[in-house]
TrEMBL record:
Protein name per UniProt: Diguanylate cyclase (GGDEF) domain-containing protein
Lineage of origin: Bacteria, Pseudomonadati, Pseudomonadota, Alphaproteobacteria, Sphingomonadales
Record domain EAL: where: 23-279
Coiled coil: none
């Protein structure tokens, strides 16, 4: 029996070691990918639920490595966070989002009518000085701050509330809007909502998808919507995959929707085609 337990421990250690090695391999590859510009941004439309009009695009990191393998953000973002590579990755994403918006504006002969949402990781906010990074991107690409919506998670606020509050006010002073991402999945103390300058609550997909057939989910969505309304915040529902869901959310007073009903994350040029088509209509 003892031998069996010993082997079990050994297997566990071997597995842990293999996992650590895989993580390290991915970290090395990701460091090169950032340096060699193998990353790109995909853009997913966010629509006004009542009218269906596109109002913004969320910028989502994509990584195709030199052997052609497409890695998922759910795999490489955690590695970037653990290794600190989220700092250069996040700086790149902000600048690339601004560069793309400048391109879209130029292609439309002026303001293209869209905002871009950029994700800020809690680890990135702890380790980097974000407001100057955002300001530099605005200046470099000649854009007003109100063209950006920055998405934060509750974990950023938990880590260092006072410092994060200062950063959020500095970002607001640049003209950007702030969204609380994946709302409802993290921190449960809601006191921060009244103290921090949050414009939008993004309702996590885990509550939205399947809510039509689940009384508990719909109750949570309703509660988040009434909380946001009471606090004067707008709302975005993630994971809107059907027309019925979009109509129900609109009837409940949700402001925006994002999901496969409207489009999957698109290459920047395909997003531009969508903008141009919407402007012509
Ligand atoms: P997120 O911020 O919650 O982004 C939304 C995710 O939901 C995206 O996954 C998007 O492709 C997916 N999605 C959108 N609509 C639907 C839908 O209707 N159904 C389903 N099933 N999924 C939908 P993606 O692109 O794989 O990104 C995963 C996460 O990785 C993001 O979640 C975000 O937390 C993180 N991430 C992506 N890019 C960046 C980045 O540049 N910086 C940081 N810090 N995080 C990023
Ligand atoms: Ca997000
Ligand atoms: Ca989200
Ligand atoms: Ca989410």
């Amino acid at each position: 029996k003892r031998a069996k337990t010993g082997r079990h421990v050994e297997n566990y250690q071997t597995q842990a070691f293999t996992l650590a090695r895989q993580q390290f391999a991915m970290e090395t590859a990701l460091r090169r990918a950032i340096e060699e510009r193998q990353l790109r941004l995909a853009f997913q439309p966010i629509c006004d639920l009542a009218s269906g009009a596109i109002v913004s695009f969320e910028a989502l990191a994509r990584w195709r490595d030199s052997s052609g393998v497409e890695h998922q953000p759910s795999d490489f973002i955690p590695v970037a966070e653990e290794s600190g590579l989220i700092v250069p990755l996040g700086r790149w994403a902000m600048d690339e989002a601004a560069r793309t918006l400048r391109w879209w504006d130029d292609a439309c002969g002026g303001h293209c009518g869209m905002r871009v949402a950029v994700n800020l990781s809690a680890i990135q906010m702890q380790r980097d000085d974000i407001a100057p990074v955002v300001e530099a991107a605005l200046i470099r690409h000649d854009l007003a701050g109100d063209r950006f919506n920055l998405e934060l998670t509750e974990s950023a606020i938990v880590s260092d509330p006072d410092r994060i509050a200062g950063i959020m006010h500095a970002l607001k002073a640049l003209g950007t809007s702030l969204a609380m991402d994946d709302f409802g999945t993290g921190y449960s103390n809601l006191a921060y909502l009244q103290k921090l300058p949050i414009d939008i609550l993004k309702i996590d997909r885990s509550f939205v998808s399947g809510m039509l057939a689940d009384r508990d989910k719909i109750a949570i969505v309703r509660a988040i919507l009434s909380l946001a309304q009471a606090l004067g915040m707008r709302t975005t529902a993630e994971g809107v995959e059907s027309n019925e869901l979009a109509q129900t959310l609109a009837a409940l007073g949700c402001t925006y929707g994002q999901g496969y009903l409207y489009a999957r994350p698109l290459e920047a040029e395909d997003a531009l085609s969508m903008i141009v088509a919407a402007r012509a209509a």
